[in-house]
Specification:
Length: 93
């Protein structure tokens, strides 16, 4: 739950700062306010949000492990990957 909270906070903070900086948000390094710290913060939010699973994956994990909700249905769970590739190739032609 902490990873999801940090991810959402980072996204909201980055979006807020870019909105507050307006056109100056496009500048970088010494040309930008605070020497580009907030631009780097905004761009770095994606590594935090993707690393360790996206927000949707984190919500699924919380639902399954913390709340005890049932897992999502997976029809391909017991099928080998090479069998899936063959089925996909057959469907294309």
């Amino acid at each position: 739950m902490l990873k999801l909270a940090v991810s959402r906070h980072t996204a909201a903070t980055g979006d807020l700062v870019m909105a507050l900086e307006g056109p100056h948000g496009m500048l970088m390094d010494t040309w930008a306010p605070a020497d580009g710290f907030w631009q780097q913060y905004f761009l770095g939010q994606w590594s935090i949000r993707i690393g360790g699973g996206t927000d949707q994956i984190q919500r699924n994990i919380i639902g399954e492990r913390a709340l005890g909700l049932p897992r999502e249905v997976r029809a391909d769970k017991d099928v080998p990957f090479k069998a899936l590739a063959g089925v996909a190739a057959q469907g294309v032609s």
